[in-house]
């Protein structure tokens, strides 16, 4: 099958478009969840959607996607409101409130799912696919519902961009300006529930939490501004979703939802490792450079202090003496100082052959040592 054949395939078209919509809304709304330090919120709302899926099925009497997604939205919104009520009106921390809400609603969902499976209703077949997703079952009518939810959510973000931005970074200041902080937080939380609803068909209840958080976490490594973070998170979400969907189409038999999550997670791993100034690799390089700089600064100031103690700016310090003082070899640091013109080797006269190989500060080295010591003195103050 060629690429053109894939693009013309009805099922693949639905899966790719659905994955793109999911990545778009997840990246945008997940950014606010990450900035508000509510990464567990996506996990809570996705698990809390399960009882809504079951209730929607019981009310409709059939596996109607509209009823099921509406039930999931109501259930997720109730879970979000319960979590906010617990954390604001009790001494519970946010993580405790999220944990209580997650376990309670998910347990209720499992009970309802078990009950439905025991009713011998032929229409309930495949209902448990909402646990892990069944992207291949996505219909064009489902895409219209997912697209409508995505457009509504993105429209609200555009309309209330400044308010959401302020609430995410400094809710106290937002409250002092008279903004309805509580209602804005409720609205943001309900909108994340909307993103969960969009992803139920594609990746399911269990994996949806990763889709909410992963694109935002990856984007946060590369961007220092909310605007850039949101746009990049949306791009990562869309790219990971489409790539995972196409990879699933290429490898028949592999589930689409997990492949989408793995695709986005791979971007997170690369971002955590290699993002400039924030990645682990860059951090290791920075630490090694800092240690080398600290070592040569220590050796330079040692030479300066020895010269000051002997009241001789041309005081000659032997390699062995410097090594003993620092308890390790300082040869590499001295070579670096020599390359920078801060020290020179003493040229021993014929009558003093034993002084060969000793080190002497240059005027540039004296100036640099004084600068370092002055800087350390200011930091101590």
Outline the fold blueprint.
Blueprint (H helix, E strand, L loop, with lengths): L2 H6 L1 H26 L4 H21 L4 H24 L5 H24 L22 H20 L1 H9 L1 H6 L4 H20 L3 H19 L3 H25 L5 H19 L5 H30 L9 H8 L4 H9 L3 E3 L13 E3 L1 H18 L1
Antiparallel strand pairs: 1-2
Describe this structure in words.
With about 375 residues, this protein is mostly helical. The chain folds into two domains: about 5-255, Orthogonal Bundle (ABC transporter involved in vitamin B12 uptake, BtuC); about 280-380, Winged helix-like DNA-binding domain superfamily/Winged helix DNA-binding domain (Arc Repressor Mutant, subunit A, Orthogonal Bundle). About 75% of the residues lie in helices and about 0% in strands. It has helices at about 5-10, 10-35, 40-60, 65-90, 95-115, 140-160, 160-170, 170-175, 180-200, 205-220, 225-250, 255-275, 280-310, 320-325, 330-340, 365-380; strands at about 345, 360. A two-stranded antiparallel ribbon has the order 1-2. Helix 3 runs antiparallel to helix 10. The radius of gyration is 31 Å and the shape is elongated. The mean pLDDT is about 80.
Quick rundown:
This protein has helices at residues 3-8, 10-35, 40-60, 65-88, 94-117, 140-159, 161-169, 171-176, 181-200, 204-222, 226-250, 256-274, 280-309, 319-326, 331-339, 363-380; strands at 343-345, 359-361. The protein has 381 residues and is an all-alpha fold.
